[in-house]
Amino acid sequence: MSIASSVLEAIGNTPLLELQRVVPAHHARVLVKLEGANPTGSMKDRMAIAVIERAESDGRLPPGGMVVEYSGGSTGASLALVCAVKAYRIRIVTSDAFSQEKRDHMRALGADLIEVPSASGRITKELIGGMIELAQQISEEPGTFYSDQLQNEDAIAGYHPLGEEIWSQTGGSVDAFLQVVGTAHSIEGTATVLRNHNPNLRVVAVEPAESPVLSGGEPGAHKIEGIGLGFIPPLWKASIADEIMTVSTKEAILMARQLALHEALFAGTSSGANVVAAIRMAKRLGPGHTVVTLLVDSGLKYLTTDLYTSS
Q: Which residues are the active-site residues?
């Protein structure tokens, strides 16, 4: 192993692991990409470096400029990491609906936070809309780069290496890929690469059962951080997914706890949702097939939430 000159060189090339105990017998194998191994403990490091470096290269982010974003925490921490290395200021609009750990992490990396109050800690369409509106207002200040994650196509390219890693690590054996949908960057960037290798790949988008907007349902409140915005993400392309599965907050929490207890894998609620959906697909496909999904972040981001503090 060579010596890295920057923490940014530690982004990507995360382990891929086969689940051993939470997947029932007579199912396809289920592989999980351990994205919590990235520097901030999240897959979002991949999109953050792509967004910042592309903005640098075309002049949207000037030397000494300030980055502005709205974030529940993972994107914000990842952008703050890149900004800390590259000496940019960053201001992030967030909310108390998201874990204290995420907010503390952003602050530790130098981000200036503005917190929008939530309704009893729930993630709703109105909350996300209010965060976006405030970030837009702040971005009108001179010398700012509004990274605007929901509208920023540069983020998609950040996940192309993730697709290549999965293909290489599986030896080209991937039958289905499942991923929760927040901004929709990761499912598109990863699945596009995998489909280039295997046109028959089955791609499944996962969303909260309480807010099934991609499935054509009504928006609702839920507690799966990072996904289920309550509206269809602007960059969502329905053609990327062969189907959409819904997973409830309760199911996602239970699976995250099972992963920790039985697989020693410590991840967040959205990762639990991914595995619930992956096991459903594994049952459908049966032995001899390979299902891949992501453990999108580390459980260390949720220690003060009810994910791990409630029995």
A: 44, 270
